[in-house]
Amino acid sequence: MELSVLNKEGKETGKKVTLNDQIFGIEPSDHAIYLDVKQYMANQRQGTSKSKERGEIAGSTKKIKRQKGTGTARAGSIKSPIFRGGGTIFGPRPRNYGFKLNKKVKQLARKSALTYKANEKSIVVIEDFNFEAPKTKEMVALQNNLQIAEKKALFVLPTENNNIYLSSRNLQDVSVVIASELSTYQILNAKTIVLCEGSVAKIEEAFKL
Predict the structure, then answer these.
(1) C-alpha to C-alpha distance for 56 and 27, rounded to whole angstroms
(2) For residues 195 and 187, what is the distance between their CA atoms, to the nearest angstrom?
(3) Which residues contact 99 (CB under 8 A, 6 or more apart)?
(4) Does pTM top 0.90 for this prediction?
(5) φ, ψ (nearest 5 deg) of residue 124
(6) Residue 137 belongs to what H/E stretch?
(7) Per residue in 39-84, pLDDT tens?
C-alpha cells in the first residue's frame, strides 16, 4: 500500500511511503488480537483487593455460648464467617492477573490490527515534525489541519519527543507512542493512526523484516 506524505499543514508534500504488505496487508487473526488485548487489559489490573479471613480478624477466641441446650446451632468463635463482623470465606487476595503470551502471537496481533486500520483507510502518514515548546494549541492546530479533530488519534513517533507528548497530554482524544512500544490495544482504540515518516521504518525494524 502506498500513501502520500502530508506536512503539518495537512498538504501533500509530493513524497510517497510504501507500507509493507507483510505488516499492513496480512490475513488478520482475530484470535491473536483477542489474546493480546486480553493480556494488555489484565496487566492494567492492580490485583490489590484483600478481605480478612477469620484468622485475621481482631476479636476474642472465647467460645461464645455453651455447646448444647440453646436451641440454636453450636458456635465457637465470634470471628466465624456466619456472624456479622466475622471473617470472609474465600475472599479476594492480592494476585497478579497477568499471563504469558508468545512473542509471535503478540506480533501477529499487532500486524492484524494494523492491517485492519489499513483496510479501513484509517492510516495517515505525516512528515517528521517537532514543536519548539510544549503547546497544546499547536497539537490542536495539527489535528484540524489533518481533519482528525473529532476522532481518537494515535500519533506514532520514531523516537521519544517530550514536546509533542506534553502538547498532547491535555487532549482526551490524542495519544502519543513511539513505534517500538506500539500495542494492539492502542491501535484498535484509535480511530486514526498518524504515522510519522520515520516511524514506518521503525515499525518494520520492530517486526524484524
Answers:
(1) 54
(2) 11
(3) 39, 42
(4) no
(5) -120, 135
(6) helix 136-146
(7) 999 999 999 999 999 999 998 889 999 999 999 999 989 999 999 9
Cell representation of residue 32: 491473536
CA distance 23 to 40: 21
Residue 175 burial class via C-beta count within 10 angstroms: exposed 0-12, middle 13-18, buried 19 and up = middle
Cell numbers found for residue 89: 470465606
Q: What are phi and psi of 28, to 5 degrees?
A: -65, 145
**Strands (DSSP E) along the chain, which ranges?**
2-6, 12-18, 123-126, 153-157, 174-178, 192-196
User: What are residue 194's DSSP bridge partners?
Assistant: 124, 155
* Among 183, 120, 119, residue whose Cα is nearest residue 154: 183
